[in-house]
Design brief:
About 25% of the residues lie in helices and about 25% in strands. The protein contains twelve helices and 20 strands. Helix 8 runs antiparallel to helix 9. The chain is globular. The two termini are about 25 Å apart.
Amino acid sequence: MLTTRTTKLSGWGGYPRVDATVCEPKDLSELATAQDQQLIIRGQGRSYGDAAISVNGLVVLSGKTNSLLSLDEGGLLDAQAGVTLEQILQAFVPRGWFPSVVPGTKFVSLGGCIAADVHGKNHHRDGSFGEYVREFEIILADGSHQTCSPAQNAELFWATLGGMGLTGIIMRASFQMSPIESPFMVVQHHQAPDLAGVIKFLQDKSIDDQYSVAWVDCLAKGSKLGRSVLITGHHARLDELPATVRKESKAISFDLKFDFPDWVLNRYSVAAFNEAYFRRQGLRRKPFIQHYDQFFFPLDKIGNWNRMYGRRGFVQYQCVFPLANASKGLPQLLEELAASRRPSFLAVLKLFGPGNQGLLSFPIEGYTLTLDLPLRDPGLLPFLDRLDEIVLKHNGRVYLAKDARMRPETFRAMYAQVEDWLAFKSRIDPTNRFQSDLSRRLELKSRSVAVTA
């Protein structure tokens, strides 16, 4: 019998926060005893909104199902779904292997990477995480186990990839790692005076690299709108490393022990930081060597960095504009943000390559912008509705793993294949066993039953 407890849960943004009933089985097969319960799986809780919380039913923590099972000589890793990228990196970087795609934090589970079809700084070249998943085993609503791949149970595979845990419980998965020669990166910075400049950089094949991301100053206005620092890099070969950095150094880290007061992050402090960052990082004109932790996961060195946004938390807003519409959509969104005088401490722009067959997978070919906005006034959520209108007007979409407040009609207009996903959900989960607060808010439910309010 499952042991449960009640606790406060939220996404990484701290909004919304709910009382939830949770359990943490050592074997996910134990959930067979909870056949009549609504449930949602939760990995490390790093989705930002309400995708892995639930005020009804059961939240299943996957942290104890975290065994690395095998790695073959070609770099195919087999592991339980609760394994984190941090575990994978610690185990296999010294052996010359790196995950083919990583998001902005290593504190995420393998199952979560599949459920959100996470992307990284190399999407423009290598696609999202799903491109490297060779198969996974999943428990369906009726308790049966299925093995899925692009060739076997393909419909279930593509509904689960990006499906936010609403098709079943992923038990284990195998995915392809990439070979590397060192734990270091060769990094290059490029300073862009405005949005047009950074888009030109992102399209410039002469400076393109395996990974690229642009830090954007979202408080800049007028001729400086969208000024940025483009950061590119690739895994360093041994012959690219000076002898002084060939040994791996441990990254300095610390835990944030308290919530910042609301006044700490304001438009003045953020503007001062942005000015200093733009000038200092933009001056690094020559390639330099950096450890992979600093390049991929700069915020991970600050434990509980989300507490910088105070007790009320924050909303991370990530959208993508198709290539053809980005030159109009991005300036409109940035102008709206600058006019609102709302500080986004973190703002990044990336180029996406073509998307995949995942029915609810977020990436489409174009430009994706991510913003962090503190929850300090009741006007923020209506303001984000206005951003949704801009994104929708230009045929873009918002990322479910970052969402905490989108309206169901907006979601349906953004995701063209949602009706196909709902039809499949109705077949494999007719009683809506798998639910989350996100699924109820967005009405991602089987058509055959009504969702409990």
